[in-house]
Amino acid sequence: xxxxxxxxxxxxxxxxxxxxxxxxxxxxxxxxxxxxxxxxxxxxxxxxxxxxxxxxxxxxxxxxxxxxxxxxxxxxxxxxxxxxxxxxxxxxxxxxxxxxxxxxxxxxxxxxxxxxxxxxxxxxxxxxxxxxxxxxxxxxxxxxxxxxxxxxxxxxxxxxxxxxxx
Amino acid sequence: xxxxxxxxxxxxxxxxxxxxxxxxxxxxxxxxxxxxxxxxxxxxxxxxxxxxxxxxxxxxxxxxxxxxxxxxxxxxxxxxxxxxxxxxxxxxxxxxxxxxxxxxxxxxxxxxxxxxxxxxxxxxxxxxxxxxxxxxxxxxxxxxxxxxxxxxxxxxxxxxxxxxxxxxxxxxxxxxxxxxxxxxxxxxxxxxxxxxxxxxxxxxxxxxxxxxxxxxxxxxxxxxxxxxxxxxxxxxxxxxxxxxxxxxxxxxxxxxxxxxxxxxxxxxxxxxxxxxxxxxxxxxxxxxxxxxxxxxxxxxxxxxxxxxxxxxxxxxxxxxxxxxxxxxxxxxxxxxxxxxxxxxxxxxxxxxxxxxxxxxxxxxxxxxxxxxxxxxxxxxxxxxxxxxxxxxxxxxxxxxxxxxxxxxxxxxxxxxxxxxxxxxxxxxxxxxxxxxxx
Lengths: 166, 438
Fold this sequence. Notes:
The complex is a heterodimer.
Chain A lengths: L3 E6 L6 H4 L11 H4 L11 H4 L5 E3 L12 H8 L4 E4 L4 H9 L4 E3 L10 E5 L4 E4 L4 E4 L5 H8 L3 H8 L6
Parallel strand pairs in A: 1-2, 2-3, 3-4
Antiparallel strand pairs in A: 1-5, 5-6, 6-7
Chain B lengths: L4 H10 L8 E5 L2 E5 L3 H10 L11 E4 L9 H17 L2 E3 L6 H8 L6 E4 L13 E4 L2 H10 L1 E5 L3 E7 L8 H12 L8 E5 L1 H4 L3 H9 L8 E3 L4 H9 L19 E6 L6 E3 L7 E3 L10 E4 L7 H11 L9 E4 L4 H9 L2 H8 L2 E2 L20 E4 L15 E4 L2 H10 L11 E3 L2 E3 L2 H9 L1
Helix pairs in contact in B: 2-5, 6-8, 10-12, 10-13
């Protein structure tokens, strides 16, 4: 898998309240509608600007806050191919893998909005074509690679009947 | 090498010695779901084709986030959950029953349990020495279907708390101070273990406040050893037989050890828009507050309502400040009625809402206006948290909230408190009598 797309840069501490605001709580059983509001309180125009395949690039502690799996789900539904950040909050990280959204830990300081990125998920390399950057990202634990490769947790359990740790 | 509390509990479940850093499959004792996360979890379970719950007597559904429902869509979500509960024999707490993290600890969680909840503040159960952590809907769906989950055994931070709380300073001030010090991601993926004489002397209500906010430092759990206070709480809740002492082994390995002396701690305020943006009260006084909110899984137990009551009884709220109260559970609400707190709050000018999460999650019952400043006993002050990204949320203890509701600006509760006893400040002899009666 080598997704390509533009970077959308955000700062530190992007909470799940910014990603999936509580005022759209009533849309939790209507995720395509909720996805129209993705990242709304961090950038109100994000949902209308993002293109399929693009990347969200955060700073540290991306996804802090609630356990709402709806947050990574609507990022994925909006067409985002991966989220890159210096660090992730624990529950968001696990939820992202569970919904099949790659989340990559790397040094995002030099990446800016509009940069063209290309990511090799197998080799673990991020290329920034605009800035001639080559970044590496930390590998996932095996169980998470298995879940991600199977397309998310539900597909993983459907396939193996259980968690496959190794 | 000895085991931390996390290693002890997970080892017992895995029936072998596990160490920090290992990835394990473990049985799950209790599953928690609420109306914001349950519909997705039920749909995931249906996709998995799992018709039966692994443990229906300890799978608990709560309608607390939108309770009672303010919208048609949410009423239909509630119906969907009710139908699922009826089909599967799961446990159920309907609207008004209370906030999941309060009710689950009142009735379901025991020391040494592993509790997985589709809500980040599931970590509250750490106060009962349960390995209690938040996950997403899919993880909880699998846990309720298969009765197990995977975990990375966390490294632990030991938080040693010493000293007696000064007048007007509480567990909430301690945890805000701690998060301000360590940062909102200072303990990401780690287990916190709160210990030391101050924690040993805390009531269960205060311990629940501490554990509740472990996730605000990024932690997976916030554990406290099971001791006589745990035993007393379980007895009061009618399940004293579920008590067992659990304490970390003497030579347990901690990644970090942090010491905090509370004897000179001031009341603490978290400024917008992150919990770790904490300042002592002396640097916050004078901020005009349009709304005060006493509620949530952090600080809406009887003891919290009592602290608020002691300060506001017989007074009138400031005319430019709205005051909203949500007791943490039906039990707390009833106890507060019997104690006269609810009447006093209404005479003070507060609005008392049903038990639930509404205002704290921006769903209903207390959305601020643009540029409003809200002072709250909540655990989070993220932008937009209470339903409007243009309002500002400050966090504090029930005592600071009470003083502020009187003054209309962030105010010092110590002005209203005179008698000091132990870690809990009292303002009259009557309150000491009430304590004895219990």
